[in-house]
Amino acid sequence: MQIRAITLLLSSLSKEKVEHYEKKLKEVKNAWTKRISFPESDLSVSRLIEMVPQDREILVSLCGLREKDSRLNDLVDTLRSGDNVFCNVLVRTIEGAKEVARLLTKLEPEEATRFAVLINDDFLNTPYFPASTSNVVVDSFALALLYVKDYSKGEASKAFQTANQYGYEVSKILKARFLGIDISLSPWMEESVGELIEMRSGKIFSLGNTWAVGEVNREIFTEAWKSRITPIGFSETMLPVAEDNVLRQRVLEGSLTLSNLFQLTFSCASGIDMVGVREDRELFENIIKDSIAIQFVKRRPYAIRIIPVRGEESIKTEKFGIIPSIKVV
């Protein structure tokens, strides 16, 4: 098990507070990434950017915006202010879907990896970026884990308990409330969730995959309650295509299509995630509209990361390698 992220969730904003936690985070050891999630505010984007830590290794979820926020016009420039800056937009309506689809057509691929569409009743306390926006009354923090191998060995409970103890130790350093763990089973390249699904139900995509994802969700929640930890955020199986070698390969070979991926989203936290989609404003709008309908039925937080593809079959990125363009069928 690895601590994938430790994310500070701020109750209020000030440059002094961000600087304070920037120093405190440097004292924390054994975390893959360190992050700060800002709360919803009415500050201008330029003021928010001024608060970004000097240490560019610290990732920042700078702004969670609602779909009618006038600052949406500044979002592209916000994402271009630094490669450690992340943003999300909370969408609930068809009008919001149209506005965000327009915005997506303006993003370069790398910028799109740091932008999420969140479909939910409100902003979400999660360590996972870009969908995180702090919504707490006191300064808090949360953990995300990389534990695919532990889960495969039947050791998820042990991983949860170890992470929980780590959280309480870190709280002494940060002097912030330990909110809990987003127990989402999320992949990173060779630690593949796609491989787990195929071991249970056949090659992605085939009938039975959705059931397999649902079973994984049930099992990780059972282990969480046994371990007496507090699950927060998404706490479901995640299928980010460009972060999972098996999922990436299935998209490249064409067995996993956009329609297939949509079906899987009934069981996973964010199925249309980190996958290239040919640039088409109407298509982006329809993806978001269909996602709104699925979230209404599912009644769980739902996030989307679409990477616009312009005239290519795939995109090569420095951080994620190849991001394949999915078949739109």
Automatic annotation (TrEMBL):
Protein name: DUF711 family protein
Source superkingdom: Archaea
Pfam family, one: DUF711
Database matches in InterPro entries: UCP027893, UPF0210
SUPFAM superfamilies for the chain: PFL-like glycyl radical enzymes
